[in-house]
């Protein structure tokens, strides 16, 4: 797991505080609007005095309640997506700790759209073999391995071995 720098941690905390304040503000608006509408229903059912609001104020309350519901729905979807992403990462971490590193890396390579030959070369790259050794082990020319390596790096969006290994470690472990 990567250790975040102090500025990164501070920025994350500030974002968390803004998100938390916005969430609680939304909950407060929804609770107040819900309380008002509940009182109106109970007042009409049991003959209690209604809250005296002019029609303009009532429209503002209804607008706030509507906006609160819409924003609540949007926030719910956003939180559900975050939870789904966190669940996927937790599942990958669980699989790693359960000894399924090879299966996870195979899935990762398949997700990049690597051919079978590229996957084999990618494994050798991850293991740290030089191009000449990969070519010897596979019984191919070094030029072929270079072309396959370039294709792997392009598909992964990196420029070399170190970045590929770093990307794999970052995507799988963090």
Descriptive overview:
The structure is a single chain. The chain has helices at residues 6-46, 55-97, 101-112, 116-126, 131-138, 142-156, 161-173. The N and C termini lie close together (5 Å). Helix 4 crosses helix 6. The radius of gyration is 28 Å and the shape is rod-shaped. The protein is mostly helical. The relative contact order is 0.07. It folds into two domains: 6-90; 101-173, Orthogonal Bundle (Arc Repressor Mutant, subunit A), CATH 1.10.10.10. The mean pLDDT is 83.
- How large is the count of helical segments? 7
Radius of gyration: 28 Å
Poorly predicted regions: none
Shape: rod-shaped
Order of helices and strands: HHHHHHH
**Overall mean confidence score, pLDDT:** 83
Sheet/helix structural class: mainly alpha
Q: Please bin the fraction of helical residues.
A: over 70%
Tell me about the largest β-sheet.
none
Total domain modules? 2
Strand content: under 5%
Describe this protein with a few key phrases:
Arc Repressor Mutant, subunit A, 2 domains, 7 helices, rod-shaped, mainly alpha, 174 residues
